[in-house]
Amino acid sequence: MAKNSTKVALIYDFDETLSVDYMQSFGLIQSLGMKPDTFWKKANLWSANNNADQITGTMYYFMKMAKEKSVSISRKMLQKFGKNIEYYEGVLTWFERINNYGHALGLDIEHYIISSGYEEIVEGTAIRKYFKDVFACSYAYGEDGEPVWPARVVNYSIKTQFLSKINKGLGKNDDIAVNEYTPDEERRIPFKQMIYFGDGMTDIPSMKLTKTRGGNAIAVYPPHSRAKRKAMKLLIDNRVNFALPADYSENKEIDIVVKTILDKIATERDLDILKAKEEKKKHLQVSANYKRQKAKKSV
Asked: Could you tell me which residues come within 8 angstroms of residue 282 by beta carbon, excluding any fewer than 6 positions away?
């Protein structure tokens, strides 16, 4: 059977989903003369004391500490830290392997990032080339090239908006169109053709939405770690379809599960094509029967 190209979206959180730690911990925090644990504790305390959204507060706190320590932060500097990121096993070869597997099934696989990390850091990573788009926090920059304000903040609730944008085929700045009604048949990638990968609390609304709308959500956790309990709770609470160790190597659990999901999407596509052919045959036969009966009556 000839296979029509069917779009599938694989959507990832970044920190501790693809990378082994928060992306800011691979040089940015250290450039401020701080240890990651100390920085996050102080940033979160500042946010709490100022009734600030934690993600927005952290973005401000980076700017604050950089100014206090006379460290010049720029877009280019943030991109540089993306080169230092360490990934879970198999991530670096994952995208091409899955793309090739999907292609053999007639599936056009698109990869996306939806992260509370920084778009600028992701831009400098070795894997950026594999993503159709990156929806993440980002700074606005002044004439001197240094950040002056959070241009985009991505927290747990905003993540679901970007899922809807992927569903409708919208860009990251299409904030009005995302709330407009779009018939299901006009949506670029149905939720049932989405797979969402996440690890923590900020991913729960997106995981639940993907799962509820017929897609698949995968909670990942570091292999051989106590974080497995957190992922298993998401599975028990029906927030996700799978809770799997974060090893993206060939023939590991994630690889097997995702390929099986892709098989299912392709099979359902092929079945829909067969059903459509039968419906067409039925209508043609009904029409032919009607014409014959009409011809007999006119004799």
From this structure: none
pLDDT digits (tens, 9 = 90+) for 271-288: 989 998 998 888 888 888
Token code pair at residue 103: 């292609």
Q: In this structure, are residues 208 and 218 in contact, taking their beta carbons and an 8 Å threshold?
A: no
Tracing tokens 């926090």 back to the chain, one arrives at 137
Specify the pLDDT at position 90.
98
Q: Which two tokens stand for residue 111?
A: 């990869």
Q: How confident is the model at residue 299, as a pLDDT?
A: 61
Distance CA 239, CA 208 (A): 5
Distances in whole angstroms, Cα of residue 163 to Cα of each of 25, 173, 183: 27, 13, 16
Place of tokens 């053999």: 104
What beta strand segments (E) does 119-228 contain? 131-141, 147-152, 194-198, 216-221
Residue type, 60: Y
**pLDDT < 70 positions in the chain:** 1-4, 299
Quote the CA–CA distance of 174 and 96 in Å, as a whole number: 29
From the centroid of its chain, how far is CA 23? 16
Residue located via tokens 């892709």: 262
Cα 142 → chain centroid: 30
Q: What is d(CA 114, CA 198) in angstroms, rounded to the nearest whole number?
A: 10
Nearest to 11, CA basis, from 193, 181, 138, 178: 193
| Helical (H) or strand (E) element with 280 | helix 253-298
| Domains within the chain, CATH numbers bracketed | 6-19+86-274 (3.40.50.1000)
Quick check: helix, strand or coil at residue 173? coil
pLDDT of residue 156: 86
Q: Which residues of 63-89 are buried (b: 16+ CB within 10 A; e: fewer)?
A: bebbeeeeeebebebbbbbbeebebbe
